[in-house]
Design a protein that fits this description.
This protein has 22 helices and no strands. The protein is an all-alpha fold and 399 residues long. It has 3 domains: 161 residues, Leucine-rich Repeat Variant (Alpha Horseshoe), CATH 1.25.10; 115 residues, no CATH class; 122 residues. The radius of gyration is 31 Å and the shape is rod-shaped.
Length: 399
């Protein structure tokens, strides 16, 4: 490629200094072209025969060129924008990719590039808008509805690069019903990290089963495959405490098995230590999610087996936690007269009916109507013994 291939605008009376700058910018663009149209910048299906050291050198040189162009200022951006008019797609790709480093002054050219005839250039423009940040959101919103799913997926990735400011847009995508796009969106939201915790919870409550399943599987895979101590804090907080909610609606039990297998396959105490989590906080969160919060769902969504397995996966190596769980369920049963009491007792019955009955009776100085109601729900030999005792005490009072 010769310098004549590049189009520049300059006044006939430009100074020698301006001419030298334009010549330098031309040379830098030539060098950028050779860098950004090859790995690691340009992704192709052909495996590159290049070492990691060579890639690192290219990345370093790219930064040096961008820094120099930024120091030149507006003339460099103008020259880059003019070069976009070139017929060679690799030059247009170079321009678009590089403009992602120059912020808002590059927005007009990048917006124009979204209509480029070459898909590589269009995708590079989307990625560049993501690197610019929040200022690119108004433009990226439009590419979310592109007919080309590659463009839509690239847009989601760019929104993930922008991060927290893009979360309202990303959560909106979860309601579109496109499984492929929604799956990528779920991964992108979780990648954002701590600021995305509410978006993750929103996804767990999606009306689309595919979205809920993808959240569960993504979070579980991350905890299974990554070093726990390096996992993002939002994953630590969201996973164990909340992802089982979606399993309540999983008709064939696939998700339940995946999650319970994961929980039973780890050293629980080691897990809590590495995650810097208090097991009691996790237990409370699980009960809040699967007993209290799930009470707002239809009755057939509640599955005491799932709740029991989840709690057992947390406490099976620590007897003190076992007592803590039963006491928490006992407190819930006394504090509520609705279905929360029913669900708390149902879980406690599966954990240890006898120990739970003892806690229920010992939690009050005198038996109340609540005590009787809890024991009636508990049923079994514990309830029979309780009501036999009540009848005997009543007999003693009267005689």
């Amino acid at each position: 490629m010769t310098n004549e291939n590049l189009s520049f605008s300059s006044d006939d009376g430009a100074s020698t200094s301006t001419g030298l700058l334009q010549r330098e910018v031309t040379e830098l663009i030539h060098e950028l072209q050779s860098i950004v149209t090859s790995p690691p910048f340009y992704k192709s299906n052909i495996r590159p025969s290049i070492t990691h050291e060579e890639m690192a050198l290219r990345e370093e040189r790219y930064k040096e060129i961008i820094n120099r162009l930024e120091s030149i200022g507006p003339p460099a951006i103008t020259t880059l924008a003019n070069c976009y008019k070139n017929d060679d797609w690799t030059i247009r790709y170079t321009v678009v990719y590089s403009l992602g480093e120059f912020g808002e002054p590059a927005l007009e050219t990048l917006a124009h590039a979204l209509g480029d005839s070459d898909q590589n250039v269009r995708l590079a423009a989307i990625a560049a808008l993501g690197r610019i940040g929040e200022a690119g959101l108004d433009i990226l919103i439009h590419t979310l509805n592109d007919e080309d799913w590659n463009v839509r997926l690239a847009t989601i990735k760019a929104l993930g690069t922008i991060g927290e400011p893009a979360l309202p847009i990303l959560t909106g995508v979860l309601n579109e019903g496109d499984d492929l796009v929604e799956a990528r969106t779920v991964h992108t939201i979780i990648d954002i990290g701590e600021p995305a915790i509410n978006a993750i919870r929103f996804a767990l409550d999606s009306k689309f089963p595919a979205v809920r399943r993808e959240v569960v599987r993504d979070l579980t895979r991350r905890l299974s495959s990554y070093h726990i101590e390096n996992s993002d804090s939002c994953i630590k907080k969201a996973t164990i405490a909340r992802l089982l909610a979606v399993a309540l609606e999983d008709a064939d039990g696939t998700l339940v098995k995946e999650i319970v297998d994961y929980l039973s396959g780890i050293e629980v105490e080691e897990f809590f230590d590495k995650c810097d989590l208090d097991p009691k906080d996790v237990i409370n969160a699980v009960i809040d999610e699967l007993v209290i919060r799930s009470s707002g769902r239809p009755g057939n969504y509640f599955n005491s087996n799932i709740v029991t397995m989840t709690l057992m996966g947390t406490v099976n190596r620590n007897p003190q936690l076992y007592h803590f769980v039963l006491q928490r369920l006992c407190d819930l049963a006394y504090q509520n007269e609705n279905e929360i009491r029913d669900r708390a007792v149902a879980v406690a019955r599966k954990l240890d009916a006898g120990e739970f009955a003892t806690l229920v009776k010992n939690s009050v100085d005198e038996y109340t109507s609540a005590t009787a109601s809890i024991m009636r729900i508990l049923g079994g030999s514990e309830a029979s013994a309780f009501f036999t005792e009540l009848i005997y005490q009543e007999f003693l009072k009267n005689h």
